[in-house]
């Protein structure tokens, strides 16, 4: 079991899984932190604004504290932008008026209700207006970082924990106005946030559950993405493995023939060259096959690295010259070749690659037709594309083989192909050239027998 785990850890699939899983974990972690931070800042925004607002009105805070001492349920309203008449009657040295005695004012209002408390302290730090009902009577004076909003938890007279956000300020005598004669030096303004904190905890629990669920789902997503990422790599690796195996197999046969022929020469040291001509000829044939194979392999390797395309205007007579050579080859092999060059205007393509492509298709037709076979090559322009069609009356290709003929080293009839000097690399090269030129190739049956290859390239 430990060995299996060790092997799994060092696999590429596990490496991809760890990367995806780490990314998902980082994303969900950041999202959770941001949501929590935004939730807390927005939920506490009203209470913090209340504290900041009261902090700017020391006289009102003191008046509110004294009034609450005599009337615990009193409600005050702090309002901006008062009228000129009200400003005169509500100077800084006048006592704040309860809600039921105030006139309605235009502007922003701040309502101070039962959730707001103001504790007053003397210069010696003693509480001036203790409130035993709320449990705040035992709250000590906090002189550290005056003016900064903090949090605290207090146990009420009912034995319940109440959460508060508070700020402590130092009061100057000239700021107290009507209350300047009182022995008051500090004020602690508190806002009960127990319900808000409870709501935040509920929301945070919900968000945490959702994020953890999404994080667990991300494990499955990471496994899926790692498999998806590994798929092209595995396919490429399998193709490379098959390529090496097929190349080794193709090289093994001519090497075995060479070895047998050379050993035969050693067994007959007194034989003349004429008597050994069969062995020498077979050896040379296999050497030519090996050279052709290695050339094709090099071409494939270069194509995999990418082709450098030289796009130029190719004249129609260029194809006449190519087809003329094909006619000579077909005549020498006793086959009938019919050529129809219907291109009458220059086309923009790569001369070298297009010639190699046509040669591969022509050579393929030559190999798979009988001695009296017929081949037809047609070149014409339709719309914005140029089409090359190579048709033969050979044995044809089955539908199942049509899907595989462009794979490297794939041959429909291996014995027949080897006799003809083929290795199953030509059509693979042709497909790479067509993709490089931005074209397409199709294969269909010829009637009554044979195969038609049609290549479409942009002109």
TrEMBL record:
From the UniProt record, give one GO term of the biological process aspect.
cellular response to phosphate starvation
Q: What is this protein called?
A: histidine kinase
Looking at the UniProt entry, the stretches that span the membrane are 20-39, 206-225
Q: What is its main location?
A: membrane
Q: Which residues lie within the region annotated Disordered?
A: 80-107
Q: Name one GO cellular component term.
A: plasma membrane
Name the source organism.
Streptococcus suis
Where does the record place it? Membrane
């Amino acid at each position: 079991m430990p060995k299996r785990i060790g092997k799994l850890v060092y696999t590429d699939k596990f490496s991809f899984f760890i990367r995806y899983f780490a990314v998902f974990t980082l994303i969900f972690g950041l999202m959770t932190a941001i949501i929590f931070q935004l939730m807390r800042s927005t939920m506490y925004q009203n209470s913090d604004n209340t504290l900041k607002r009261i902090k700017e009105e020391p006289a009102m805070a003191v008046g509110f504290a004294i009034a609450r001492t005599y009337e615990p349920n009193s409600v005050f309203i702090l309002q901006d932008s008062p009228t000129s008449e009200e400003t005169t009657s509500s100077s800084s040295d006048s006592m704040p008026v309860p809600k039921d005695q105030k006139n309605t004012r235009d502007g922003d209002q701040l309502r101070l209700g039962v959730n707001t408390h103001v504790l007053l302290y003397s210069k010696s730090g003693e509480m001036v207006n203790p409130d035993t009902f709320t449990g705040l009577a035992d709250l000590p004076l906090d002189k550290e970082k005056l003016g900064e909003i903090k949090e605290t938890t207090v146990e009420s007279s009912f034995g319940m924990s109440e959460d508060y956000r508070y700020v402590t300020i130092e009061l100057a005598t000239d700021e107290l106005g009507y209350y300047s004669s009182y022995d008051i030096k500090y004020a602690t303004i508190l806002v009960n946030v127990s319900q808000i904190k409870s709501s935040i905890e509920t929301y945070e629990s919900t968000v945490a559950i959702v994020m953890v669920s999404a994080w667990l789902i991300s494990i499955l997503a990471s496994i899926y993405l790692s498999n998806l990422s590994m798929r092209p790599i595995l396919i490429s690796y399998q193709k490379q493995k098959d390529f090496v195996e097929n190349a080794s197999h193709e090289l093994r046969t001519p090497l075995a023939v060479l070895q047998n022929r050379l050993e035969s020469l050693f067994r007959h040291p007194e034989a003349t060259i004429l008597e050994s001509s069969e062995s020498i000829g077979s050896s040379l044939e296999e050497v030519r096959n090996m050279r052709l194979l290695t050339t094709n392999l090099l071409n494939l390797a270069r194509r995999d690295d990418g082709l450098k395309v030289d796009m130029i205007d190719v004249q129609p007579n260029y194809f006449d010259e190519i087809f003329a050579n094909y006619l000579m080859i077909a005549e020498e092999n006793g086959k009938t070749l019919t050529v129809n060059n219907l291109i009458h205007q220059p086309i923009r393509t790569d001369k070298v690659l297009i010639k190699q492509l046509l040669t591969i298709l022509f050579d393929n037709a030559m190999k798979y037709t009988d001695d009296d076979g017929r081949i037809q090559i047609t070149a014409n322009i339709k719309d914005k594309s140029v089409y090359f069609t190579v048709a033969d009356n050979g044995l044809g290709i089955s539908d199942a083989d049509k899907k595989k003929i462009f794979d490297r080293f794939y041959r429909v009839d291996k014995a027949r192909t080897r006799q003809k000097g083929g290795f199953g690399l030509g059509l693979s090269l042709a497909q790479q050239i067509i993709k490089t030129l931005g074209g397409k190739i199709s294969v269909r049956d010829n009637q009554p027998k044979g195969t038609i290859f049609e290549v479409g390239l942009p002109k």
